[in-house]
Structure formats: C-alpha cells, structure tokens
Amino acid sequence: xxxxxxxxxxxxxxxxxxxxxxxxxxxxxxxxxxxxxxxxxxxxxxxxxxxxxxxxxxxxxxxxxxxxxxxxxxxxxxxxxxxxxxxxxxxxxxxxxxxxxxxxxxxxxxxxxxxxxxxxxxxxxxxxxxxxxxxxxxxxxxxxxxxxxxxxx
Length: 153
Hints:
Blueprint: E1 2-11, H1 15-21, H2 25-31, E2 35-40, E3 45-54, E4 57-71, E5 75-83, E6 89-100, E7 106-117, H3 119-122, H4 125-152
Antiparallel strand pairs: 1-7, 2-3, 3-4, 4-5, 5-6, 6-7
Helix pairs in contact: 2-4
C-alpha cells in the first residue's frame, strides 16, 4: 500500500540551525516520537529503534535511514526502510526543503512517500496517513522545544 504525505512547518530558528539539528543524532533521538535508540553509523546511515502505535497495532520498528543529495542548509533527500516483524515492513523516502522566511525563521517543507505491507497495510490508508501526520507534527513540536532549550543553554 502506498502512502503519500506532505507538509510545511514554520520554525522560529535560522535555517542553518534547523539543518544542523536535523543531522544531529542526539537531537533526533529526543524529537522522534517513540524513539528508543538512534545512532549514526560510520557510513552515514542512521539506525534506529522506534516504538509505534498505529491504531490498535503496537510494534517496535528497526530501521535505517540515509540522507542523500545533501545541500546544506537548503535540504536533502531521505531514503529508508523499517522492519516491524510480524506487523510488517515499510520503505520510503522524503524530500526536505528549508527556506529562510522574512522574520529570520525557517520554512520547512517535505514531500514523502512510503510503501507498507503486512498487518500495517491492513489498517487502511486513511488511518496510516493520519497517524503519520500526527507523528510528524509531534516531531516538529519536539524539535522546536529542543532548539529553544539549546538556545537557552
């Protein structure tokens, strides 16, 4: 089953700071909802374990994400895959674009697509898409809070 998502977020931080945060494993670990472990390997791949709840389905995904076509501080392409055991498998990617706005902040926009199979796919496209959007919203709320904390330190 194919899922397509897109969104925009206005972040009250400079584009360079947002780009750096999106590449920092410690910040990402704090911001990704359900993240139990995240490490950046020597080959540039981020490996993670994330606990997800999709409707009635609760599972732990082991995944890998690679940042490609990096253009600091303008954006990059993400490609990755995750294995949730008997819950299913997901593979996809996203384009992330960062642009400065008039007030010195950053407009982040993304377009993502994923293919899911297994029990996850049985939940239906609408539930998966709405849950994915909520996870993305929570991630960016956490990112803003984390960057504000770092600016106070």
